[in-house]
Amino acid sequence: MPLYENISIAPEQAAFGHCARLGERVNFSGEPDITLTWAKDVAYQHEYIDLTDFPGCITIGEGTFLESLDRLAFHCGRVKLTVVKRNGFEAGKIVIGRQCVLQGTAIVAYANVTIEDSVVFGPNVTIMDSGGHPLLDRGADDEAARISVRPVLIKEHSWVGMNAIVLPGVTIGKHAVVGAGSVVRSDVPDYAIAAGNPAVVIRYCDAPLGTKQEKG
Q1: For residues 155 and 176, is the Cβ–Cβ distance under 8 A?
Q2: Distance of alpha carbon 107 from alpha carbon 121, whole angstroms
Q3: Interval 165-179 mean pLDDT
C-alpha cells in the first residue's frame, strides 16, 4: 500500500509563493485547504517530501474568486486544492484561469486539471483526474505506480452546478452547463446542457445562456 506524506500550505505563507502563481486581484474568502501530497511505493520509503518537488504546481488567474466560508444560501465547504506526486513522476498541476468562481470546490490533480477563463462552479463541486488507486491488487508494493491518471479540461465560460462530480479524463466544452448533482464521466460538448448520473446531454444552446440567440 502506498505511503502518503503531506504538506499543508496557506496563501499567506512563503511556501505558497514557491508552489503557486497568482494573477492580480485573486480573492480568497476564508482560508482554502491547499495540500501537497506524495504517494509513494515501498521503493521510495526512505525519501521524503519537499517543496522543491512541487514548483509552480498551482496557477490561479487574474480576478478569480475562491469562497471557503459557509455563508452562502446553500451549504459551502472550503476550497480544497490537492496536488499529488506519485513515486518519481512529476507532481500534478492545477491551472485555474481568469475571472473564475470557486465555491467550496475540491480539485485533485495527479497529472493536470485545467480550468479556462470565466468558469463558475456552484457550491461543493468535486473535480479529479484520478480515482487515487488501482482497481486490482490493492495493498501491493507497486500500488502507487499503477494508479490510473487522465487529465481534466473545463473550457471557458462553462458553468458546473452545485455538488456535481467531474471524473478523470473529462472535457467540458466552452459555454457548457452541468446540472446540480450530476456525475460527469464523459465529455460534454460546447454549448451543451448536461445533467444526471451519469450526466447526459439534454439540449444545446446556440449561444451563451441569457442571450437572444439561445434556443430551447
Answers
A1: yes
A2: 12
A3: 98
**Got the DSSP string for 37-69?**
EEEE-GGGTT----GGGSTT-EEE-TT-EEE-S
User: Do the Cβ atoms of 97 and 118 come closer than 8 Å?
Assistant: yes
pLDDT in tens, 11-57: 888 888 889 999 999 999 999 999 999 999 999 989 999 999 999 99
- Is 34 within 8 Å of 16 (Cβ atoms)? yes
Catalytic residue among 46, 75, 133, 175: 133
Q: Which residues contact 95 (CB under 8 A, 6 or more apart)?
A: 59, 112, 113, 114, 115
133 is catalytic: yes
Using alpha carbons, list the distances in angstroms from residue 115 to 24, 128, 199.
17, 12, 19
